[in-house]
Predict the structure.
Amino acid sequence: MEAWRRQLSDPVSAFPIAKAGPAHIATLKTFDPPLAALEGRQLRGAERRGKRLLFPTEDGELVLLVHLMTSGRLKFLQAGETGPKQPAFALAFAGGSKLVLTENAKRKRAGVWLLTPEQAEQEVEHLGPEALGLDAAALGEIVRGDSRRLHSLLRDQRAIAGIGRAWANEILHSAKLSPYALSRDLSDEEVERLATAINDELSRGLALREAGASDDRTYRVHKRLGKPCHVCGTPLAQVDFEEHTIFYCPDCQTGGRVLKDRRLSRLLR
Ligand SMILES: [Zn+2]
């Protein structure tokens, strides 16, 4: 998300908005103020809170909030550049450039909200501190505040903002911690390792994204079932947990143990 923000901030603020929309009915989550209220206004740039991108208007009256979820993508098109035929959302700028959101998935989950600054503040106020830049002391307070399985805690935006399931996999592998480890059981040294892993992995991801790297080149653990661990060569494993699939190295992270399926649906049966 931080890579998107850096890429988009300048181009979206260069020209006033000529036309806001069209928007897919499942993508646009608000109707008041109407999208047309954006027309004629200029954006101030792009900001980020956790996984949300915020585009405030120059006049301070409106904020366009975008959450890409898993499969939404944003693209900035220069004047004359052709884009997708039916974007889920589009903003056209004076001069002909465009910002388009596409989502290549059956179920549309990405969302666009047009809000007042007060509403936008409410949307983001429940978010925890930003993951990137979190130090061991702050992380220590978070992990000791609650006894949670690490994979679940890392993904909880109210605890720490900005880590999704893919980066939770990468971070826990880098920290050599089990995804199922309970947060309160971590030693001080393990908290240090986790804080370092969060910053190292998110910085690595940011640099690769800025260089335009594909998922394949970015992830070393996520979605790499059976591939050799880049540290020890053991085939990577996967396990279903809550509504997610976790990827991990049984040698580096769980002392050789294979993790058991803990899907909610199985536990409820
Ligand atoms: Zn390994």
